[in-house]
Design brief:
Blueprint: E1 15-19, E2 25-29, H1 34-40, E3 49-58, H2 61-69, E4 71-72, E5 75-76, E6 81-82, E7 86-94, E8 106-109, E9 112-113, H3 119-122, E10 133-134, E11 147-151, E12 155-157, H4 163-182, E13 190-193, H5 197-209, E14 214-218, H6 221-230, E15 235-238, H7 245-255, E16 263-266, H8 271-280, E17 286-289, H9 301-306, E18 310-313, H10 321-329, E19 339-344, H11 348-355, E20 364-368
Helix pairs in contact: 4-5, 4-10, 7-8
Length: about 375
């Protein structure tokens, strides 16, 4: 869709979507203050930074988890905390040192701030930065605000791409990192565990990469039907939680037409799902875990050992955003069907309740602020 952008006028106070250790969820005024933005127009920004008016932000499963459970592994909500890290918007101010962005540019925000000094940063795997500040991961506040200040280097131009698609570049980056590191190739039989947003975007990537056959699993029939709508050739398997991992693995192979998957892309982080994947892949296959799970879990060690199955993991992404932008811009990956619910930022509490309720039928919920498209 072709869009046009006019320079943003600041007319409303900056607000953020907060949670806290007591699992409350609310909206209140936050920084940077709107009056301050009007007066300074970028003059007091740090060198290399810009101000962005956020237009669309997707609710990630991690956002819901931080709200409801207060922690993911060692990352704990200890004070009031702003959520959100899947955002796109428009630049409204720049520091004089910024030359590649100007007011009016539409951008998607990569939410990780790195040190540029540690080994992961210097070797290009900056997702492993030893001093990473990832927006929305406690104690670093997130992007669910009307306005944010952010380093220009992590604000990627999206041209005339819609803000909705721009916000979806973050979960697409997760899927692309999994595709690259797992090594999915043309003609590979691939299993995708979980038909949530990451699983469905991974499905779109596997379809574009020429994987076949593709099997996707979930406990919810509605999500499997959704998977079939966005990828008609996918084979679906509704997880039977009464089955042992060995029997579930056999059922998955049968669903694939008696072809054992070369690669399983595990997008749930659920222990039983990881085990099912391990029992489904072929000798010498790979189970690649994208999903986030509990701190400790049990896996079928000897199945891995005797079948020479590689068990590999992913943490966020690096160097994926330019590729993600090209894939969406050129229509290789079409994620428009994934946004099922849209809410104004003033209705953020209702948005989170919808995102956290599987009965709502929500796939990707976005919170928006004065969006044109």
């Amino acid at each position: 869709m072709s869009t046009t952008t006019t320079v943003e006028t600041i007319t409303k106070p900056n607000v953020g979507v907060f949670t806290d250790p007591e699992h409350k969820l609310w909206i209140e005024e936050t920084t940077p203050k709107s009056d301050h933005l009007k007066e300074n127009k970028g003059e007091d920004l740090p060198e290399g930074w810009v101000t962005v008016a956020i237009k669309s932000t997707g609710i990630c499963g991690s956002d819901v988890h931080f709200w409801r459970h207060g922690a993911i592994g060692p990352m704990v909500v200890t004070d009031k905390h702003i959520l959100g890290h899947e955002s796109a918007g428009v630049v409204i101010a720049t520091h004089p040192s910024v030359t590649h962005l100007q007011s009016g540019d539409r951008v998607a925000i990569e939410p990780g701030l790195i040190c540029n000094n540690c080994e992961p940063c210097l070797t290009g795997r900056y997702n492993g930065c030893e001093k990473m500040k990832f927006l929305s991961t406690p104690p670093i506040d997130g992007l669910l605000r009307r306005y944010v200040n952010h380093p220009a280097i992590w604000c990627h131009k999206i041209g005339d791409m819609t803000y909705e698609n721009g916000a979806l570049l973050e979960p697409l980056s997760v899927a692309l990192a999994g595709m690259e590191r797992s090594g999915v190739a043309l003609g590979d039989c691939v299993l995708i565990c979980g038909a949530g947003p990451i699983g469905l975007i991974t499905l779109l990537c596997c379809q574009a990469a020429g994987a076949c056959p593709i099997v996707i699993t979930d406990v919810d029939e509605g999500r499997l039907q959704y998977a079939s709508r966005i990828c008609p050739r996918v084979k679906t398997y509704k997880v039977d939680t009464s089955l042992s991992p060995a029997d579930a693995g056999a059922a998955i192979v049968k669903t694939a037409g008696d072809v054992k998957p070369a690669i399983a892309l595990e997008c749930t982080g659920v222990e039983s799902s990881v085990a099912n994947a391990i029992y489904s892949v072929k000798f010498g296959g790979k189970v690649f875990v994208i999903g986030v799970g509990k701190p400790d879990m049990t896996v079928p060690f000897m199945r891995l050992s005797t079948q020479e199955i590689d068990l590999q993991f992913q943490y966020r992404y690096s160097n994926t955003w330019p590729r993600a932008i090209r894939l969406v811009r050129d229509g290789v990956i079409d994620m428009r069907q994934l946004v099922t619910h849209r809410f104004d930022i003033e209705d953020a509490v209702k948005a989170f309740e919808t995102a956290g309720d599987i009965k709502s039928g929500a796939i990707k919920v976005q919170i928006q602020s004065e969006v044109d498209t």
